[in-house]
Amino acid sequence: MPNSWNPLELIARRWTPSARLVRLAALVTVVMAVLIVVTGGAVRLTQSGLGCETWPKCTDDSLTPTADMGIYGVIEFSNRLLTYVLCAVIGFFIIVARAAKPMRSSLTRLGWSQFWIVMGNAVVGGITVLTGLNPYIVSSHFLLSTVLLTVAVITWQRTREGDDAPRLLVATAVRQLSWLLVGAAAALIVIGTVVTGSGPHAGDAREVHRIPLDWQEITQLHVDFVYIVFGLTVALWFTLRAVRAPHPAARRVVELFVVLLSQGLIGYVQYFTHLPEFVVGMHMLGSCLVWIAVLRVFLVLRDRGTPPPDAVPDGPTGEHEALQPAVEEPAAAGSR
pTM higher than 0.70, yes or no? Predict the structure, then answer.
């Protein structure tokens, strides 16, 4: 047989992971996607961006940092090593998704998508070093990490639902409002990278090229979009209540509201305390949590059925059970 030597197929013949393990593996990819963002921020905030002066080696003559490079080389090299851990985690998810019965090609495709995003971002990371921390490349590096986080969250969600065609649980206008929320949150993240590229934390103690903009003015624009996202979140909550949307949807919006309040508090603290490194790092973690919460709101507004029989979660399915009875009500409300 042509695929008899395919290692993934060989594993699938001998091992059937549980549905719980598939979901757990997907969740770990989300955690690792957040961790790679936070540790990347730590590299910049500790001025270790050029701790390893070249790529893919740490120096022209050494793959690893040398003693004279000090702690900066160790921090930068450790972040590079974490990429291998991320690849291993994604590889494990691909294996368990392929070995699960029944095998769902949608999950394996999402797993491979994560892998190739990591490979592409590793190259961008190398270009970042080779260009001396060019702020535009640094921004691209962060945004690709956000793309990875997006795919990881979608993958995690897909492990807990079926493969039916997406079916809206709310009226079209409500769905459009959720799209607007996603767009505003994405703009918020992009503007945040401009703040980083023009702000004081350049990533290295040596002189580094910055985006030629007043970072305080860009920060004000960033704050304006925070208010926009906050307002859209409140509007979506009232709308969901008005159309009697499924309870899980309203609960997700409340979760987003809490995360936004926490992130806003951290943002004001870092601004008025003149951007201390630890608080800026917490703000980067918060940006990941905000984006995850926004995606979870967006994804809960549609239904793709329950997982295949062999992959049904242990115990009550919770959200899907709560969603089913309310399917007709939003449509009726939107038709009035």
Answer: yes
